[in-house]
Amino acid sequence: KMTQQMRDLQLAQARKPPGPSSPNAAKRLYRNLSGKFRVNYTSFDEGSLVGRGEKEKLRKSYLFQSNAALFEAVELQDLDRVQELLKHYSPEELDLNTPNSEGLLPLDIAIMTNNAPIARALLQTGAKESPHFVSLESRSLHLSTLVREAEQRVNELMAQVVNEAPSADCSEKEKQLKAWEWRFRLYKRMKAGFEHARVPDAPSSVHLSVASSSSLQVTFWEPLSVNLAVVTKYKVEWSCSPTFSPLLGEAVIEKLKDLHFTIQGLVSGTAYHVRVSAYNMKGWGPPQASVPPFAIPSNWREYDGRAPRRRGQAEALDHLLGQVKTVHQHCICHEPCKNQPQSRKHSVSKSLKHLFHPGSKFLKTLKRGLYLTAIFYKDDNILVTNEDQIPVVEIDDTYSCLLMQDFLWLTKVSCMWDEILWLRQCVTVSQSSCSCILQTRFKMLLAISQMQGLLGIQDLGQVFFEPIKDKQGNILIVTLKEVKTNQTFESVRWVSICKLQTSRKSVSSPEEPTALDTLLISIQDKLAYHQRSSHALSPGLYLGYLKLCSAVDQIRVLVPEQLPNILCHVKIRSNPNISREEWEWLQKMASVEEPVPTDPEADRSQNPLFQELQVAIKELMTLVNIPLQEAKDFRLYSQEVLDFGDQVSFLLLLPPSDDVCTAPGQNNPYTPRSGFLTLPLQIFELGEER
């Protein structure tokens, strides 16, 4: 008989019907549920239910069926059905870690039948083994009991079928006999799988790296051989001794989606040894020591004790801005505006109704002058006025050329849209100087205020990195903002971009399109640029390539189209930290004044960073279309590692000093292939900050 523990479990956790399920029953159950996968249980007609008690009863019944369907799918080794159930139900709804009436969990069945794909799918969802198998003996005894009781039940039913005359009851017993025969074979297969399995081999490719001045990161792969049983967890151990005695700590990893672990709370400057072992239903396998065998928690800043570059900068700038406002708040020009709120708190749905106000001053056509347009988009739709026009306001009708410094000033203003009123007042005070530059910038602020007032929205978004110009003397500055709300607006006109492009009647020739026509033609490219500008890099250490080119009034920087807010780059590794030892090696390499090594046979000094840099440099040179032999004259920027938060860091690769910045008229013999942009340096800095 079963152990008393399993009998108690049967009484407490009986979740399956009294009789066994057959393969055909499993198919019927799954087929009945498959039509409901896309409907949550709360989508039933609640009006037909009487009281909350019946609703809860229906809910439990529905989830019970999904739990039973999961057991049946695992027993039938149907990977597609298992994945479908895991996709449409949460682990809680499936009761993923609650044993059935036989004391088994879905993961137990998967690993004892050695079905690795189903076991991995369950493990990644959070499935666990039954906690009642406290030893190998208890698991073996339980499997033997299941096999013996199933065999006994088959014999009993066989005798009844043979001795009874044909009848309806006999037909039902024949069905039960087939179901028990199938379950008997399943239990025998599970018992044989357990008996033939052995503990797993040691994990492979155990790599140790320095994550910070107080942590180490260990990554590893599955064992080369699991010995007929799926690995269900791993153990990471660490010690200051290579013999691991005494042991300083250990951690068991049961979430197997990503095989890595960060050991926190370590002492900087202390060497730690790490090893990893794997576990299956037969127990723990042998441990595998890491490569390198030990590591010392540290950070490159410990080399000379320097503080982070940006520490306290944001607070200092906020304080400085507050001081400037304090100085100006008592100006006479501010008195009429004291009662005016500086930030209009319109809801988007209400304020956007200004687009259709009869007094709207949006322009339909452009004359010779400087203009501002605001592009608001959601998915493939764009916001237009009631006349199907993109919102455009005039800045200056006598301004025939836009100085780059004025444009770059406006891009900085875009970082403080809610301070436009205050900026206008400050510029008004200084207008007595009659400066042409101040007058132009004051008109820009007026146009921004007009756009904000007509739209009822303070934030106009990000300024596109270059204005649109046409041969008629029009200059169009473009701002872009994505509307991410799912709210439906009653009085706002959203028009698909394709419809707007096809319905607009151009008043210019294809050879000389107006700035508005050019905007409509290129609007999808501009929206793509705006979306890519907000993308972030995945955590890791990167090698960036700094290449500048100068013009009369600006310096531009080379960036990739797919990520224009970051320099051209390749990923070196997933660990963003540079340890003190690695930084000392980089400093030593820079002080020798030798070129960046590219010879694969060069002395590697047993430094993994050396090999990683070699691979990254080759990849980066190919990316920017520079022959690899030219890399011998390139330099690594050795003054600092560029940290972008805690998860992304950069090493910079610099061309020779004479080639860092290409002068006007100077030919660049190695032009990057398609897929790159050159942005004004100030625009790039703003994009990186965003």
UniProtKB/TrEMBL annotation:
Domain Fibronectin type-III: 202-299
Annotated Pfam families: fn3
SUPFAM superfamilies named in the record: Ankyrin repeat, Fibronectin type III
Superkingdom of origin: Eukaryota
InterPro entries, sorted: ANKFN1, Ankyrin_rpt-contain_sf, FN3_dom, FN3_sf, Ig-like_fold
Cellular component GO terms held in the UniProt record: spindle
Protein known as: ANKF1 protein
Organism: Notiomystis cincta
